[in-house]
User: Which sequence fits this backbone?
């Protein structure tokens, strides 16, 4: 097995894991999911899922990773439960699927950086044509995947950590400035109301499982990304406080992204349920309205930082299959990186051309019992984010609670936190992995699959 280079410090691990969590999921996806899910009600569900269901899974993933020092497939073998490595295999598939379309959107964001540098503020109105131009956005996608592969090939401490530490804080500053600016615009407070005041009549099964999928996706959970990162964490580190920091950073950034978006959307008189184009359609006009020089500066900085946020996530997505290929198939790291990146790029081609260029992938599938076709990218999202990640979380919680069992699981956590077993955290975590996660995630998984893929509605709403 290859020698594992660890993170250089505790801050390094938290920054890299937070870097994995914070990405397009927070700034691109979260606002449009909130918009489509009816506003405040989605926000409440998302926050509850993050703290009640995702947090215990996160702790379990990091503990499994640190204990075994392995990739998500090898980890379960090392613990002596080779059958459970199915969790890791499912995670590999999820990772490949997610990165395949994530890279396409990351390419769009990177391309917007270039448009902003050139002062093309009307790009928002041409978004539909922009994503149809597959040669152009495909080239951006190649640049993005290439950069991701380059960083991953440099190993953990060298690449991932440095990038994350520097860039995340800058991104937060820029978003907060935009929040302040947005609040001065007309109708801004209608946007805030939509975002923060829940409308109970919007509760639907689809909104519930979208919020659940978003929580897992945003926290990079359910596919072993944090098993992989956990495998690089030192034994004397406190897993609980690290997980708290990662969760707060991720949820906090998603929250302020919403505070930025909805005032902007409402001030422009746009519908909040604008779908995946939301930030790409709305923001360029806003930057344009700041006036020439300032608009170019803030606009390009924003999309550059968004691209970096995406990069720290794509790096973690690529790291999962790569660490598997390196550890289990004994391939040299550099070779593994470029090979896997190439495969994932190819898997992403239908997502690339399914935005208007190819009719077949733009109107990809009509679910059994659903008359609305969806594009390929959305389809992959339904499978990977909304179904596989919560399923992975379900299996991980059962594994930690009932297979690996309390003494080993808690023993691992106690290593960097000797008082853990007597703390309130151990009760919270125990309740989560033993009861809440298995029941709620299991139930929602079944309902989601029946509803989404078979058109069988058990709970109408
Ligand atoms: N959490 C990342 C984001 O919000 C995406 C991601 C999902 C990364 C799963 C790793 C694993 O953008």
Assistant:
């Amino acid at each position: 097995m290859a020698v594992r280079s660890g993170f250089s410090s505790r801050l390094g691990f938290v920054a890299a894991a937070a870097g994995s969590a914070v990405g397009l999921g927070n700034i691109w996806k979260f606002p449009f999911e909130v918009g489509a899910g009816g506003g405040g009600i989605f926000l409440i569900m998302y926050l509850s899922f993050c703290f009640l269901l995702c947090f215990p899974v996160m702790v379990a993933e990091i503990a499994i990773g640190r204990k075994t020092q392995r990739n998500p497939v090898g980890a379960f073998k090392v613990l002596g439960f080779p059958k459970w490595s199915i969790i890791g295999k499912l995670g590999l598939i999820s990772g490949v699927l997610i990165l395949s379309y994530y890279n396409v959107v990351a390419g769009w964001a990177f391309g917007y950086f270039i448009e902003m540098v050139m002062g093309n503020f009307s790009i928002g109105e041409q978004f539909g044509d922009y994503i149809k131009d597959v040669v152009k956005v495909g080239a951006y996608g190649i640049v993005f995947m290439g950069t991701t592969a380059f960083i991953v090939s440099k190993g953990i401490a060298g690449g991932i950590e440095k990038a994350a530490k520097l860039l995340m804080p800058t991104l937060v500053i820029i978003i907060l400035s935009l929040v302040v600016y947005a609040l001065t615009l007309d109708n801004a407070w209608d946007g805030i109301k939509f975002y923060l005041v829940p409308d109970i009549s919007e509760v639907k099964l689809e909104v519930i499982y979208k919020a659940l999928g978003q929580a897992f996706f945003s926290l990079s959970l359910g596919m072993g990304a944090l098993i992989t990162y956990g495998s690089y964490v030192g034994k004397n580190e406190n897993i609980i406080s690290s997980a708290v920091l990662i969760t707060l950073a991720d949820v906090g950034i998603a929250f302020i992204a919403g505070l930025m978006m909805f005032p902007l959307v409402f001030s422009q008189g746009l519908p909040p349920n604008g779908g995946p184009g939301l930030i790409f359609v709305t923001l360029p006009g806003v930057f344009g309205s700041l006036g020439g020089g300032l608009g170019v500066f803030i606009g390009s900085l924003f999309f550059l930082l968004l691209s970096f946020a995406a990069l720290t996530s794509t790096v973690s997505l690529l790291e999962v299959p790569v660490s598997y290929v390196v550890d289990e198939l004994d391939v040299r790291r550099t070779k593994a990186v470029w090979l896997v990146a190439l495969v994932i790029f190819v898997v992403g081609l239908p997502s690339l051309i399914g935005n208007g260029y190819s009719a077949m992938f733009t109107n990809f599938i009509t679910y059994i019992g659903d008359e609305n076709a969806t594009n390929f990218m959305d389809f992959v999202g339904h499978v990977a984010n909304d179904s596989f990640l919560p399923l992975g979380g379900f299996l991980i919680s059962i594994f930690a609670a009932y297979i690996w069992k309390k003494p080993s699981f808690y023993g691992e956590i106690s290593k960097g936190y000797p008082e853990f077993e007597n703390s309130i955290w151990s009760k919270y975590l125990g309740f989560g992995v033993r009861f809440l996660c298995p029941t709620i995630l299991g139930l929602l998984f079944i309902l989601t699959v029946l509803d989404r893929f078979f058109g069988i509605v058990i709970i109408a709403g």
The pocket of phenylalanine is lined by residues 20-21, 23-26, 98, 217-218, 220, 223, 225, 313, 316-317 (CB under 6 Å).
